[in-house]
Amino acid sequence: MKKLTAFLLLMGIFSVTQIFAQNTSLKGTVTDTTNKVNLQHAVVSLLRPKDSVLVKFVRTDQQGQFSFTNLPPAKYIMIISYPDYADFVDDIDLVAQPQKNLGNVSVTTKAHLLEEVIVKQRIAAIRMKGDTTEYRADSFYVGPNANVQDLLKRMPGIQVNSKGEISAQGQKVEKILVDGEEFFSDDPAVVTQNLRADAVDKVQVFDKKSDQAVFTGIDDGKTAKTINLQLKEDAKKGYFGKLEAGSDFDRYKYGKGMLNAFKGKRKLAAYITNDNTKFESLNWNERNNYGSNNDNMQVMEDGGIAIFSTGDEFSYGQGLPTSTTGGLLFSNKWNQDKHNINTAYQYNNLNVKGRIQTTSQTILPDTSFTNTQDQNFVSDRKRNRINSKYELRIDSTSTLKMTLTGSIVTNRNANSFLGKAISEDGKLINQSDRTTTNDGEDRNLLGSLQWQKRLKKKGRTLSFNGDFSVMNKTNDGYLLAKNDFYDKNGSLVRQDNLDQFKTNDEALSSINGKVAYTEPLWKNTFMELNYRFAFNRNNAERNTLERTSPGGKYENIIDTLSNHFIYNSNNHMGGFTLRLNEKKFNLYGGASLGSVRFNLDDINKGNNRNISFTNFLPNAGITFNPKKQTRINLNYNGTTRNPTLQQIQPFIDNTDPLNITIGNPNLKQEFRHNFTFSYSDYKVLKSKNFYLSGNFSTTSNAITNANFIDSIGRRVNQAINVNGNYNGYIWSRYGFDVFPSYNLSFGFSPNISRFVNRVNGLENVSTNNSYGFEVSLGHWTDKKLSFYLNFESRYNQSKSSIRPEAVTKYWSHTSYANLSLKLPAKLFLEVNSEINLYQKTALFANNSNVYLVNSSLKKTFGKSDKLEMKVAINDIFNQNQNIDRNISTNFITETIRQNIQRFWMFTIAYNFSKNGKPTNGF
């Protein structure tokens, strides 16, 4: 292990030395031969002679001067372009003369050229089409087998950080669209890391309007920064697949087998995997290539698609997992894409074991105490799921979309807890030894229906969106607990022993829908009318039983811990929105009014309770675009939050005997006022950007908690209504190129909050403030070295009114780094790190810092690099832990969750294809 680490380090030092030994420069001044003036903002581009691929470009400054630095020594074609002027083309040799000064470079207007002179038109590498910036992918050089993320790093105005997060023109990219195919997720990091760059024809950056605005043609001011990838046609034909296996020849191993065959728009795919190195052995790209992740897909009018992907309990978590997955997929489009069907079956089996350690401080009016808990768990979950989607384009004005998903999930888990509470003076208050087990099964059926219709008059539309769900959940398990309680002198005063069997059966169903109608009122002014309904039903029965005698059967029902409720809710809402769309700004305002009725039927006690709430939801906003690259947004909306069944039903759950939750049938509805703003200003070609956004919300009748904690550390929780809660944040970032391809950015992000609750009958006001400062530097190149560095410091402060002298203050620091080196002989070295540092406090005095460093060395073989071998080290310093600190009301908590730590892995992968190209970057 030490020899391998030393070898990787030496290779990195060698490559860095070679890079900085070969830099050259080129400069000059662009001048008009006719008027004898220097030209500002002229585009000076350097192309590679053998294939005319763009290497780098700059714009001239106010004096007409331009400069290139850090250029590799080579021969180039230089092109100078300026509106109404002929292109100036010249050969540049930076091998013989590394530091070259061209002096004045004269260009001529087209009007003064002789008639026999032909000006050759060149397709620009970057085009501005209205509000869309379009990049021609082939004009930006990337190495063999590069992915889209490598391509985006070469494009002016686009930044990619170490986590794969993408910013374009100063704003975070929220969506990735892929033209015409349903193979991908719209998650920006996922798609760009796994889609091959050579499959892309064009990259388009724009502000995508909301789906409703796209359909109706009425701009509602809601946009999302979006990148659309237009694929080359030959990237969509044939078949492709992968065989991959890896092991450390001891404990860790994984394997994958995948095949995707397609003809035209018909697709057949299958995969099977087994892995104990991570929770989901398929990456996002593979799940969409060989499986199905299209539950939330939307086909756009221009043929592009957007997929809103979400993870589930089988794709993330903590602990040590063993995962087995498999799937089959069929999809097809026919009759000029009027019909579109997508059906998939998936199998998942996830077995996890692990440990969670929690330390928390509870602040009371006259004292405080510390709780520690050590949890060990094991779980096994299996899922069989089938989902299907059908789309019908009825005619040019209307479409119909239906989806149906069914699944059966079985789970088994066991948990053991060892905990204790310690007073301020170090005395034992209580200790607990608790074990829980649970076996359950969930059966789910969900469906949706969407219909959209454009009417004859432009802007007049009618649409319906509806969905239904039927869910049945059953589970049962055991609770064994021994709880000891002590007095102030440390003497045992009470002991509770629990031996109970618990059953839980739930039958849930719901139907929801929305009808919307839009009507143009007069020029640039529109109105939308909508009606929403929702019907929900939950039949929930819980029973807790104890033994009839020691060692006997569990037959005695504990009435106070058993209940049977039927919970119904009916919601009706009608609303309107008025919109004014002008060239540089648009305004909107509206409101919705309706009522929701809850009915709670207590079957065991024969009681029935009805609760009604009136919902009023106002909204308003303005978007102002003083110029194309500047945008200002101001928005307000009011929302209500109604109590849940678990908050109002009066039953006791003693799963954790030291933390009991009871219901509050007198809860009121809460109302939240929410204000947001944003300002963005960017200069694409200069790679400069500034972005500022913020949010502030305040809540009336906020639903919060009342805690009663007795002298022996037991806590009873109940939901209550309070006033005075608020929270707000500001996020800002300024970025620019300090040198060509070296981007520096700074960020500032303060947060404030005020939270009211009750502790032992007293009102407690908690104020939590934090201030974050961030700086990052990135450099990406098609040559040897690319890197990204990010560092953030955050100061955290919290205090509670019931103990104003007990103030919690600490710094936390987070750093990310990524280094990529392209070495000779098709070798690729990559090192990435994540470092988290927490300042020690009186409560958290132990070392909780994490230094996570990973490294890999990869080699590809063959002309097309289909075969790859890689040696990787995960968590070199054996530090991987999931640490989380949380400050909430009068509780301060630090949780450490077990994760996979250091291991090494040898991997071999073979990719095969015919015509088609997998969306993978090897």
Structure notes:
The chain is mainly β and 922 residues long. The chain contains 6 helices and 49 strands. The chain has a 26-stranded antiparallel barrel. The protein has a 7-stranded mixed beta sheet with strand order 8-9-14-15-13-20-19. The N terminus and C terminus are likely disordered. This is Outer membrane receptor protein involved in Fe transport. Its main location: membrane. It is found in: Cell outer membrane. It comes from Sediminibacterium goheungense.
Features:
single chain; 2 domains; disordered C terminus; globular; Immunoglobulin-like; 49 strands; 26-stranded antiparallel beta barrel; 922 residues; mainly beta; seven-stranded mixed beta sheet; Maltoporin, Chain A
Summarize the structure.
This protein is mostly beta strands and 922 residues long.
What is the fold's blueprint, element by element?
Elements lengths: L1 H19 L3 E9 L10 E5 L6 E6 L5 E7 L3 E7 L6 E6 L5 E9 L18 E4 L2 E5 L11 H6 L4 E3 L5 E3 L2 E2 L2 E5 L8 H7 L5 E10 L1 H6 L6 E9 L6 E10 L5 E11 L2 E10 L8 H7 L6 E3 L4 E4 L12 E15 L4 E25 L4 E28 L2 E26 L4 E27 L6 E26 L5 E31 L2 E23 L6 E4 L5 E19 L3 E18 L4 E21 L2 E12 L3 H4 L10 E4 L7 E14 L4 E13 L1 E8 L5 E8 L2 E15 L2 E18 L2 E18 L5 E16 L2 E21 L3 E12 L11 E12 L5 E8 L6 E8 L2 E8 L4 E12 L8
Subcellular location: Cell outer membrane
Keywords: Cell outer membrane, Membrane, Receptor, Signal
Protein name: Outer membrane receptor protein involved in Fe transport
